[in-house]
Amino acid sequence: MGNKQTIFTPEQLDAYQDCTFFTRKEILRLFYRYRDLAPQLVPLDYSDKPDVMLPYELISSMPELKDNPFRQRIAEVFSEDGEGNMTLDDFLDMFSVLSEMAPRDLKAYYAFKIYDFNNDDYICKSDLEKTVNKLTRHELTPEEVSLVCEKVIEEADLDNDGKLSLEDFQHMIVRAPDFLSTFHIRI
Amino acid sequence: MTTRERIKAIQKMPKTMKEKREIRNKVLMEKTRKSVSYSTEIHCCTQCMYKIALSYRRFRNGLSELFQSLQLWQKTLKIIGGKFGTSVLSYFVFLTWLLTFNIFSFLVNFSFITIPQFIAAGSNNLSFTGLELLTGAGYFQQTVLYYGFYTNSTITKIENSTSYDMQLAYIFTIGIYFVICFFSLVYSMAKSFRNNFVNPHTYSGNAGKLLCIWDFNITNEKAVRLKQKNLSTQIKEALSEGKSEDLNLSLKQRMVHIAIHLAAWIFSLGTTAVCCTCVYYLSINNLKLFMKGDGTELENQAATLVLPIVVSLLNLLTPFIFSLLELLEKFQYPRNQIYVTITRNVILKMSIIGILCYYWLNIVAISATECWETLVGQDIYRLVVVDFLFCLLGSFFGEFVRRIIGTKCLKNLGVPEFDIARNVLGLIYVQTLTWIGIFFSPLLPAIQMIFFFIIFYVKKVSLMMNCQPPRKVWRASQMTTLFIFLLFFPSFTGVLSVVAITIWRLNPSEKCGPFRGLSSIFDAVSRWIDVLTNYPRSAWVVWIYHNLIESVHFFFILTVIIIIITYLYWQIIEGRKIMVRLLHEQIINEGKDKMFLLEKLRALQTSTRDTPARKGASQQFSTTSSLYQPPGQLDQQRHLSMPNYLERPLEKNKSTFSATPPYTADFPERSGFLPGDPQRQHPSTKPGVSEALALAMRARQQAEREMEDEDEEDFRS
Fold it and tell me: Strand, helix or coil at A167?
């Protein structure tokens, strides 16, 4: 193929290609985007698997993420330490799930985790309230927010435990075919 | 698993990259260990297969990388999506997709038809004036642009080498192009239907979609704020609508509604009919003028432009009349409004194209003109060029001037929004014309390609300068599916019928074109088959032709088989729908059983603790038995301040409410509740268990009753 890159070993590149939805060129392009966030921290040679982690502030300053109301949750979900500080692996994983090629179930799984603010594997009412506030920039009154959340739970909660499980969420996704195209970040 | 399936399975796993890599490495090690332990014979075979699979995979990766580097305008699409969201982006993606059809057609036609023609070209005696670019006549008449210029001879460059039969090349190139387009459209349509089509029967309520509504594509700060504001407005509207009950229209009001709708439809169909007759008589007039040939050359050429200008004006203005109509009609759902708008516009555009095709195929083809195919080609060329100019003008007036008016003069109008439906339908119209024109003017897709390029940039600039992001919800996926479907039917199928009629039924002109002198264009193929019967090696081709293409029985049997398969699949789908409904009910029942059992256990635990009964709380608790609440004192305050919501489940679960008094009567000491630990065994649960089972049975009956209520609601809504 005539690849003269010296950043990754061929095995590493193959592994990345198998584990994400990206081609070699895209993986390299993403690496350069990762490096552009902090050129002094990220080495140009990854063949010895350096342990480099970029802090959340740098990740959230990316133009694709900086205005997204859910950027903190996205970074937390995909980061290894759960705080939003991402290694290159996490970075590639994040954009792979958010790319066009990822299947609906995978996206639904991660979207569920993003909206689950307290990480208890259920979207309960407080999670929903936080989501609605982020969606509307706190423009609704607390009563309206509460009402909306109760309506959502009423409609989507199939097994009637008052909170949404992953299955409820996936069932809801089936009724919203736009999800595949809206849960997508181009990079 | 094959390697590809293995890779796909790893990619789909919702685990971190580290875990996926470890799994992948483990699997690879297993595979190599297994392959080493095989005997050498089998090892050779599997090694061969492995090598083939590996090289194929590398080839596919390379191809996909090539396609990605060829994909135009990735950055521009990203900027547009970032500022305006997925809905407006879908228009530009559609435009790019149509562009690939035209590029492919141009490449195919140019290499197989035009280049050989250059070798055997005649001379062009006409002079070039600038007007040709607009009218397509004059100098262009004797160029490769039109059908009439192509030779009917077999071209040989060097003596005694293989000859190139222009007739067969013409038919087969265009035929194979249409076949490839057909399969590509069917594939896109099927993929789109599978991903995006939502069964309308399962549509129930908007609130659940709140979690799917955020568009992650939007990256511009202003756009994000606008979207957030729009969302909060939508939510407020939805809440206020929800508080007022559904419109229970009286019979008289419903009749009035239906009458208005009917009147609007009659008016729009009437307008369409008027437009079509206008176009028809204008075109007949045109032909008469052309045949007579009085007047100066310039006048004649200018006269030919009248028809395209009138057609484009009708296409531009009539949709505005339709939209005025819709202001009078009040639709209950905005979704219906969009569908009705699109239907009316599609009927208008396809009727105009239909009338024009009728005119071309029935009147021009039989007229005494010298080269009717070239005439038709010129007509289509003019239509395409004038439509392009009107598109630019429409963009200028519709967006730029409207913005000036909206911001400077009438301030309450505001900045315009990008009208996606109108623009996409315009694209479909122009692409239909191009496809019809391929047969009569093989290089028309090249011209259309250039126009699409220009339109992309013009629309993009106009969008960025003049428009604001859309306010209403636009279901981009469903709309895209609808547009792809419209592109296939009636657009592409109409084109196929026109080309089929041309090839099979019409007489080609005597003096021009590659099929001069034949009685029908398909005769060229029949003659070729006759020639082939003399060659024993090509007997299979002759056999296929006589028994598969020419015979009626084959198509009849094929049709019957396809109908049977379609019917079987339809029945399978119906069965699966019933299955889905049953499983849905089962989940609801299980949940309710769980709820009742949990309450029961909790009640038993608290009743044996002798805690003072908080009667007030227990009353409220019994009325909201279908909702699980987190423990704490917040609940009581919330109950008191949320009467609206309490009423709703009461109405919905009337049967449950009536059933709870006997339930509470059994356990009067039940108080608040603890965050019960259902696993804690209590001696008093033994007698309670059988009662719990009885309760579960009752719960199931109540759930069934509730499903009936829900069904009634569904039918009503």
Answer: helix
Q: Which two tokens stand for residue A4?
A: 């003269």
Query: Does B621 reside within a domain?
Result: no
Q: Does A80 touch chain B (CB under 8 A)?
A: yes
Q: List C-alpha distances in Å: A162 to A152, B142, B524, B700.
A: 10, 76, 73, 19
Is residue B403 situated within a structural domain? yes
Of B198, B482, B455, B451, residue with least CA distance to B346 = B482
Question: Which 8-state DSSP code applies to residue A164?
Answer: B
User: What is the CB-side half-sphere exposure of residue B416 using CA atoms within 13 A?
Assistant: 19
Tokens of B308: 């395209």
Which of B211, B634, B652 to substitute to test the interface with A, most A CBs within 10 Å? B211
Write the DSSP assignment of B239-251 as a string of letters: HHHHHSPP----H
B198-221 residue pLDDT tens: 555 455 556 667 778 888 888 888
Answer for the pair B361, B498: CB distance below 8 angstroms, yes or no. yes
Q: Give dist(CA B250, CA B256) in Å, integer.
A: 10
The per-residue pLDDT for range A115-170, each reduced to its tens digit, is: 999 988 898 889 889 998 888 888 888 888 888 888 888 888 877 788 888 888 88
The 8-class DSSP code of residue A123 comes to B
- Look at residue B260 and tell me if it is in a domain: yes
| Whole-angstrom distance, CA of residue B319 vs CA of residue B552 | 43
Helix (H) or strand (E) holding B188: helix B166-196
pLDDT single digits (tens) B318-374: 988 888 888 888 777 777 888 888 999 999 999 999 999 999 998 888 887 888 888
Contact map slice: A 18-77 vs B, CB within 8 A: 18-21, 23-26, 63-70
Please return the burial class of B326, using the count of CB atoms within 10 Å of its CB with bins 0-12, 13-18 and 19+: middle
Q: Is the pTM of this model over 0.90?
A: no
Which H, E and C letters describe B449-465, residue by residue?
HHHHHHHHHHHHHHHHH
Enclosing domain of residue B10: 1-29
Nearest by CB to residue B232, choosing from A15, A115, A136, is: A136
Q: Can you give the pLDDT at residue B394?
A: 87
| B631 Rama sector, left if φ>0, alpha if ψ -120 to 50, beta otherwise | beta
Query: Are B274 and B132 contained in the same domain?
Result: yes
Number of structural domains (chain B) is 3
pLDDT band at B249 (very low <50, low <70, confident <90, very high): low
Q: Do B86 and A182 touch (CB under 8 A)?
A: yes
User: In angstroms, how far is CA B269 from the centroid of its own chain?
Assistant: 25
Whether B89 and B19 share a structural domain: no
- CB contact under 8 Å between A178 and B212, yes or no, is yes
Query: Hey, what amino acid is at B162?
Result: T
What are chain A's domains? 10-98 (1.10.238.10), 104-182 (1.10.238.10)
CB contact under 8 A, B478 and A177: yes
Nearest Cα of chain A lies from the Cα of B430 at a distance, in angstroms, of 27
In a domain, B568, yes or no: yes
Which of B68, B216, B220 faces A182 most closely, judged by CB atoms?
A: B216
- Note which residues in 142-181 of chain A have CB less than 8 A from chain B: 143-144, 146-148, 150-152, 154-163, 169, 172-181
Inter-chain CB proximity A19 and B218 less than 8 Å = no
DSSP reduced 3-state for B417: strand
Q: Is A109 on the interface with B (CB under 8 A)?
A: yes
B293: helix, coil or strand? coil
pLDDT tens per residue, range B138-191: 667 777 778 777 777 776 666 666 777 888 888 999 999 999 999 999 999 998
Contacts of A64 in chain B (CB under 8 A): 219
